[in-house]
């Protein structure tokens, strides 16, 4: 089964509503550059989701960067999966390295979020990746495999097939350094074999795997040409509509 490529932006804690509106307007002016055989999404701060829902070109879907894995309750400051789904959110990030390191999210919490996102009918984007010392001590495969198996624990084969996994080496995020396309492909291939072993071959073949970590218009092509890499999760370079369009042209 052919996997539809996915170009996903992660705005992190950037952009006011006015700035998000300006981005959507500019992207709208170039919407003919967004190929129809590719999926697009922007994971924005909660405060910008409304303006994006109204103004993004129809082929660009909304994503959230976080969610709390309960239906409702006394969880001051949190947003539930139901609230995001009702709002028209299609994708939700879970386990981004900034949440794991700055907010202490464990693999168990990431798994709760992944399952809650699926239960609400949205698509989880499970982020995994090793840090620099883990890379230097040869632990990349062990770390990534552990994060994947714990992140998807309890999901059905169908849910895994619809999910997205983003391989983002922590040392490459926001650093200007990237994994080589070959190294990223090796990890992506390993992720598929871990899923084949722990879930089944159909899920392993269907799940979309993105590379993330300092992706830019001039390096995205090398990643998406790899057979097991289906797109990119892009932070800094997704903040400008012109770069998003350039990356869309490279992917489509
Ligand atoms: C990210 O935020 O997931 C990311 C990969 O950031 P950047 O592209 O800026 O490295």
UniProtKB/TrEMBL annotation:
<comment type="pathway">
    <text>Carbohydrate degradation; glycolysis; D-glyceraldehyde 3-phosphate from glycerone phosphate: step 1/1.</text>
</comment>
<dbReference type="GO" id="GO:0006096">
    <property type="term" value="P:glycolytic process"/>
</dbReference>
<dbReference type="GO" id="GO:0005829">
    <property type="term" value="C:cytosol"/>
</dbReference>
<comment type="similarity">
    <text>Belongs to the triosephosphate isomerase family.</text>
</comment>
<dbReference type="InterPro" id="IPR020861">
    <property type="entry name" value="Triosephosphate_isomerase_AS"/>
</dbReference>
<feature type="binding site">
    <location>
        <begin position="10"/>
        <end position="12"/>
    </location>
    <ligand>
        <name>substrate</name>
    </ligand>
</feature>
<dbReference type="InterPro" id="IPR035990">
    <property type="entry name" value="TIM_sf"/>
</dbReference>
<dbReference type="InterPro" id="IPR000652">
    <property type="entry name" value="Triosephosphate_isomerase"/>
</dbReference>
<comment type="pathway">
    <text>Carbohydrate biosynthesis; gluconeogenesis.</text>
</comment>
<comment type="function">
    <text>Involved in the gluconeogenesis. Catalyzes stereospecifically the conversion of dihydroxyacetone phosphate (DHAP) to D-glyceraldehyde-3-phosphate (G3P).</text>
</comment>
<keyword id="KW-0312">Gluconeogenesis</keyword>
<feature type="binding site">
    <location>
        <position position="214"/>
    </location>
    <ligand>
        <name>substrate</name>
    </ligand>
</feature>
<keyword id="KW-0963">Cytoplasm</keyword>
<dbReference type="InterPro" id="IPR022896">
    <property type="entry name" value="TrioseP_Isoase_bac/euk"/>
</dbReference>
<dbReference type="GO" id="GO:0019563">
    <property type="term" value="P:glycerol catabolic process"/>
</dbReference>
<feature type="active site" description="Electrophile">
    <location>
        <position position="96"/>
    </location>
</feature>
<feature type="active site" description="Proton acceptor">
    <location>
        <position position="168"/>
    </location>
</feature>
<dbReference type="GO" id="GO:0006094">
    <property type="term" value="P:gluconeogenesis"/>
</dbReference>
<dbReference type="GO" id="GO:0004807">
    <property type="term" value="F:triose-phosphate isomerase activity"/>
</dbReference>
<feature type="binding site">
    <location>
        <begin position="235"/>
        <end position="236"/>
    </location>
    <ligand>
        <name>substrate</name>
    </ligand>
</feature>
<keyword id="KW-0324">Glycolysis</keyword>
<feature type="binding site">
    <location>
        <position position="174"/>
    </location>
    <ligand>
        <name>substrate</name>
    </ligand>
</feature>
<dbReference type="GO" id="GO:0046166">
    <property type="term" value="P:glyceraldehyde-3-phosphate biosynthetic process"/>
</dbReference>
<comment type="subunit">
    <text>Homodimer.</text>
</comment>
<protein>
    <recommendedName>
        <fullName>Triosephosphate isomerase</fullName>
        <ecNumber>5.3.1.1</ecNumber>
    </recommendedName>
</protein>
<dbReference type="InterPro" id="IPR013785">
    <property type="entry name" value="Aldolase_TIM"/>
</dbReference>
<keyword id="KW-0413">Isomerase</keyword>
<dbReference type="Pfam" id="PF00121">
    <property type="entry name" value="TIM"/>
</dbReference>
């Amino acid at each position: 089964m052919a996997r539809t490529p996915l170009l996903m932006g992660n705005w992190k804690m950037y952009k006011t509503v006015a700035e998000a509106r300006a981005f959507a307007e500019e992207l709208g002016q170039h919407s003919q550059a967004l190929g129809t055989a590719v999926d697009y999404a922007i994971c924005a701060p909660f405060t910008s989701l409304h303006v994006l829902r109204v103004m993004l070109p129809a082929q660009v879907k909304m994503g959230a960067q976080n969610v709390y894995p309960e239906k409702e309750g006394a969880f001051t400051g949190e947003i539930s999966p139901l609230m995001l789904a009702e709002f028209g959110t299609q994708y939700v990030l879970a386990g981004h390295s900034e949440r794991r390191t700055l907010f202490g999210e464990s693999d168990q919490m990431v798994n709760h979020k992944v399952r809650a996102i699926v239960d609400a009918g949205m698509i989880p984007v499970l982020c995994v990746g090793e840090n620099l010392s883990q890379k230097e001590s040869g632990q990349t495969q062990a770390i990534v495999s552990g994060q994947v198996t714990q992140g998807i624990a309890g999901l059905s084969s169908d849910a895994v097939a619809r999910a997205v996994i983003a391989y983002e080496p922590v040392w490459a995020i926001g650093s200007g350094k990237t994994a080589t396309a070959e190294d990223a492909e090796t990890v992506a291939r390993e992720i598929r074999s871990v899923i084949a072993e722990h879930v089944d071959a159909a899920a392993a073949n269907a799940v979309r795997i993105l590379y993330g970590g300092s992706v830019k218009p001039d390096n995205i092509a090398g990643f998406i040409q790899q057979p097991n890499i289906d797109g990119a999760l892009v932070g800094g370079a997704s903040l400008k509509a012109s770069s998003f369009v350039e990356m869309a042209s490279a992917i489509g």
